[in-house]
Amino acid sequence: MSDTLIPTRLPRPFDPDRGREARALFPDLDGDLAALIEGTAGCSPYLAGLMAREADWLPGALSAPLAALAAERDRLSGIAPDQIAPELRRGKRRMALLVALADLAGAWPLETVTESLSAFADHCVALAMRAALTAEIRRAKLPGMQEDDLETGCGLVALAMGKMGAGELNYSSDIDLIVLYDEGRYGGDAVLEARPALIRATRRMTATLNDITDEGYVFRTDLRLRPDPGVTPVCMGMAAAERYYERLGRTWERAAYIKARPAAGDIAAGARFLEDLRPFVWRRHLDFAAIQDAHDVRLAIRRNKGFFGPIQLAGHDMKLGRGGIREIEFFAQFHQIVAGGRDPSLRLPGTVPALGQLAERGWIPQDTANVLARHYRSHREVEHRVQMINDAQTHQLPGGAEGLSRLAAFMGRDAEELGREIKDRLEEVHGVTEAFFAPDTPGEKAPGTPGAIPAAGADGHRKDGTRTVGQDPAGAAAGQAEVEIAIDEALVARWRAYPALSSERARQIFDRLRPQLLHSLSRAARPDEALVAFDGFLRGLPAGVQLFSMFQANPQLIDLLGDITGTAPDLALYLSRNSAVFDAVIGGGFFTEWPGEDALCKELSRVLQIEEDYERKLDAARRWVKEWHFRIGVHHLRGLVAPKEAGHEYAELASVVLRVLWPVVQTEFATRHGPPPGRGAAVMGMGSMGAGRLNARSDLDLIVIYDAAGQETSQGRRPLASRTYYARLTQALVTALSAPMAEGRLYEVDMRLRPSGSQGPVATSWQSFRDYQETQAWTWEHLALTRARVIAGPEALSNDIMTFRRDLIARGRASGPVLRDVAEMRSRIAAAKGTRTIWDVKTGPGRNQEIELMAQAGGLIAGDPDGWIGEGLNLAVKSGWMRTAESDALLSTYRLLWNIGQVGKLLSGKALDPDEIGEGGRALLLRDTGAETIEALQAQVAASTEAAAAAIDAILEREADT
Predict the structure, then answer these.
(1) pTM score of the predicted model
(2) How many structural domains is the chain composed of?
(3) Which UniProt keywords apply (predicted)?
(4) Which residue, 13, 35, 2, is CA-closest to 109?
(5) Which of 735, 764, 757, 763 has the alpha carbon at shortest distance from 747?
(6) Are both 760 and 887 inside the same structural domain?
(7) In the chain, what's the furthest Cα-to-Cα distance?
(8) 710: domain CATH number?
(9) What is the C-alpha to C-alpha distance for residues 569 and 567, in angstroms, rounded to an integer?
(10) What is the mean pLDDT of residues 784-790?
(11) Residues whose CB falls within 8 Å of the CB of residue 365, separated by 6 or more in sequence, listed in order
(12) H or E segment to which residue 159 belongs
């Protein structure tokens, strides 16, 4: 920005005589600058007085105002501590005059005005603190501290809060400070001696800034934002402050710390304190309970100030009144409080930047951000003019016509037009913010906003072309009637005894939600089943305020919960114990297309980078995976993805976890035992994981292969032999994936497919893996390799492993020996598994495990290592040992059973039983299989598996006869 004051607008002198008197003080000024002086002095007695006192300094400052302010800060820095108080007041006069003129002239935007005011306040606080501490050091009241320690405030730090912290000070603002000291700067009993001196220094600093003398004052200083100000001293230890926030901190204090920053003193210690306070300010989950807290604060302000009824312009408070500045700040801050724990990009102190980022991240519509930002700037401009008139700490518009005329002249506007504009802005801000904090009636979010769920039409189909599973398409009226008929009053009556409804606040919110909840449940195909499932969900909730607040702010979630409880009671039970996964629905993009493995890797990496502690990284990974796992399940439930696509997404999610977590595990392990010896280790996925097709409850079949490259031991604080190193590293990976932690577990891990099975070492050396596969492996182990892939590990080793696998399988096999081994394996599996039900999709004659074996045999015999079931069966036909009709029978059966299996695993961890999954579950099962009735589906399963078993029998009998 050019440092030249070029007016783009000019005030008109409300008092022409005073304006002319001021203009006469500056005979060398002409044109717009002279008019600026005349108009300003003719509207503001305060600024006219400053012009008279600084008549010699002002003309030079107007030629380069930014440089003039910098020079004034430099001048003050050279003042002796015992002379600083009057000189700070002189500096404040000059700064106030110059900033006002640049603002009134339109030469500086709002951001430059408020940043200049805030930067000067920082400098004044720093100089006042330095002077106060100097006196204590010279009296030897700060043990161990010398004058060199003044650069870091002798452990004392002033945190700038509110508008000062955000760099948004208004023209006649007080400054909100929290003053703390770092106990660590004083060892042992020294802190007890230093404490009273630091308290004295804080009081002296405040007096230097705050006291009114013949020279005026610097800044009105408020220290009451500190913890429990009625009983605590004006400065307190950081450890004590942190304990307070951990135990007693309130929502408004969390909001206040959004704008906090170290402004003077021990800046580094202040930054560490704020970092330690981050978990208090930024909750890990979406915090919709804060919205009610914010609304309560708004109502308290209205009650205290009497701000009720329609907006009246005369005397309206531009800061605290309806539609005022505080409403916009609250709107931005509490959106940040809700979501900032999950999205660090929202942690911005400035109001306008925060609104912009909230829109960028999809939390508010862009139009809303634009409107509020525009009105915020306009409100602040009006506020500044009101304050400039008499340097009054006021935010109230004038109460009479004369006062409004003066304000209009100050702004170079017509009074009537200005009044209409201000009122229109206030009413629009009030409308937007009131709809957020206290909506009159619940309603769905606009499409495209975070959490917007595709709505269903009268026929049960959503606008995205999908159909709501288990919903009654008859409409709201019929649904309401069902509530009245089907509701179990005894069941509902016991809800208040559940932990989720133990608090009065939870009960109040739930009572408001109850009609919509029951209506949503009534739309299930079997409302009584849905109600029982919802009872299980509610009974499992450890607490309710946060979740119920989320429902209240996002009523579309109630319909989603109705879908889940009406269709998948087991998923509803999971939700009761992991309700934070609803965060993902609100977070934006929940119903968009699958982003792909690489994009998810980047996202998970960003999530883990935020956490410094290893266990926190693991918990963060668990939370993240739960949300994406939930997303896949909901997409499947609502028909947004088919069972096959869901299987692919579950597998990609697991791959992402291994790719991102494996380096994290290695880094943590290396802190004790050094980096991996040799070329490192690769993680290979086997079975369904290797094939890239999982279900909602799959465990992970893994093999770890390492290459120590001749290095016998690791190089670390506690070195290990290479074999031991990789065995323990593998166990660390298994623990990271499967250990139950605060956020649950990621995956169960099965490593029995490694060479020699459970009898072999948990990690296999590269040389041993090759030797074993070449000379000792059974046919089934080579069959398993057709579905193996390296998922994580060093690129060179990973490429070597996959090349070896490809070359090993590419040799091809004679069909006879392979199929005879397959027949033997089939017999052993049948003997071990015993009799299963018709709905067992995995094991048994003609089931998927047998079909997978035939497909794997197709790839092994043909020497083609890649491909899924269809490709393997096609290779078998091309090799001549399977007929086309047999291949078709196996493939169609596999697809049918796969779809059934995916539904079964989504709905329950138990074996599928259509009689146990309710009407909603049966509707989902029929939708995904295309069957008309459960009876028809059962007949189809029986016929298909019988045909598949017969085809496999025929194939193996032919080969046995050759």
Answers:
(1) 0.68
(2) 5
(3) ATP-binding, Magnesium, Multifunctional enzyme, Nucleotide-binding, Nucleotidyltransferase, Transferase
(4) 2
(5) 735
(6) no
(7) 120
(8) 3.30.460.10
(9) 6
(10) 94
(11) 359, 446, 449
(12) strand 156-160
